[in-house]
Amino acid sequence: MFAAMSRRYGEAFTIEMPFLGRAVVISNPALVKELFSTSPGIAQRPASGTGSLGEAFGPGSTFSLAGDELVARRKLLVPPFNGKRMRSYEDIFEAEVMREIATWPEGEEFATLEPMLRLTLGSILRAVFGAEGPILEELRELLPPLVVLAAQVVVAPQVMRRNLGRWSPGGRFLAQRRRFDELVAELIADARADPNLENRSDVLALLLQTRYDDGDVLSDEYIADELLTLVASGHETTASSLAWAIERLCRHPDLLDRLTEEVDQGGSELRAATIREVQRVRPVLDGSMRRVQQRMQLGEWVIPEGTTVVFSIRLAHDSDDNFDDATSFNPDRFLTGSASPAGWIPFGGGINRCIGAAFAHMEMDVVLRILLREFRFSPTTAPDERRHWRGVATAPGRGGRAKVFRRSLQSPEAGSPLMTTTTNTPRIKPLGTTSLFKKAMSKYWYPFLSRRWDAEDVLLINYGYEEDPPMGLPLEPTDEPHRYSVQLYHQTATQVDLTGKKVLEVSCGHGGGSSYVMRTLKPAAYTALDINPDGIAFCRTRHQLPNLDFVHGDAQDLPFEDASYDAILNVEASHGYPDFPRFLKEVERVLRPGGHFLYTDFRGKDEFAEWERALAESPLRVESKRIINPQVLRGLDGNSDRYLKLVNGKLPFVFRPFGRLFAGVPGSLMYRELERGGLSYRIYHFVKD
Q: Is 250 flagged in the annotation as binding?
């Protein structure tokens, strides 16, 4: 209806709307921007009456607030949705996606909307309520029909909103709302009794601890209203956008291929543009409205008091004046700068702009990244799915149907067995947990890098180390490109004074760390050993320093006499040894009495006990030990650009997923496991008594 009126009357027209009466509809970006910036005292979102979600969500909902009250409430809601807090939600998103896609059928078409509804509901429940167990499961069942019923009730005539018994819409809604309030009361009581409340990142915990500027706190009833608002606003809308994204991508195979390649390369720019374009061509909300409180000027028109002004998201997004060839699906418009920022308004604007917009974008980004990583989507020539209004959001009429096949990750060389396979889903075994993996790394991957990459590329490769505030370690110009990796060596080697000592490094890689220690820490002699003959040949050519020798050999069978070294250095290498206890015995044998073993490495959670047992059973005495996950994560952040350029620029396409995994770039399995504690990165100082 709006589209036909717009074609006839332009970007502003008056129309009679059911239950709302006379309304002015606008879509011109300049008019919309003017409306967004108008004082709430002149035009504001309706806080009550037909069409106001505040009627359903309660007086504590942001939909029921206006003016200074709304400004103050939004200030309370900013912390849960800022960048720092948002990062903690990414693990929730990923867990919900992996849980949902585990049962997706292969090779048969299915509607993706229902799975998207389930995973977005699970994500927002955990992020908002911090709920687990029976209460979470009951909320999963209760909230979808409650939210849909709320959206239907608020646009119904007043008589249908009344409680006329359990069979009436109003009666059903009130009964479901009472049960929701009971569950939230339980969660609030549990949260207040939680001794770890201050460390929780869920929205409920944050609202219980936050205060207005005047010291007042939110009542429990208002907290329940606000939590329902957040779930209702962020569940079905995001799920519908994801279903639309799949519907669009299956009809644009070239874009699908580009997105898959980008995921394999660790990128995200095209994916972000695609999300914005999906929200442009298939907005899940057609528009929103403001009620004029006093006579106002809007562009060239004067709007009388009491008039409803509707800004049409769909008309704005479909206008060729705002977007070139507006009806086409073209994410590149957001990469080239040809898109109109003022014309893109899927989240509204002004003081009423959706506070969870960044949350929704991040969730869509994580979900699409994982789907593209895990599945190959079959293109279709089926007609575009029609828009279908579900009471809250506009979704694909057939549910965003798709046919998928699971992808597999290729190993870098034939014969290097890095995969486990279940009935449906191939998975990489946890890093370092099998001797096959460790042998493959030593036998294939490190020599492969030596042959494939240039000398300076592989000079120093480890995950890196950085403190907060930064270390500011003085470096020579040749070391500066490898700063974070050098700092890991520095932290490990400077646990004792190496001046004048005879030092052995086991698993020196390509010698960058060996050269740094020899040049700056001044040992009397330094021997660096590695099992990779190509790497040793490179080191002998690249690092020609007095008293620095490179030797080909095995860490588990050191070719040196007993008690021949004052210190042994081992940096981020022992996870690749098939027999770690044997390596420790060799270290103890080669060290002189009073000698030092300076050691840093990581293990997965399933290896913690075995790792600690091997270290405890070694005759070496622990002088100090630190877990350095935060410092290593900062090192990975610093190294990520360099490593991604190497992986994307130097490796064949088929090897790039493994390259990113190996490099631990942000977003990779390695990085995520370090963040969540599934990997423990430690630095040790041992002494031989």
A: no
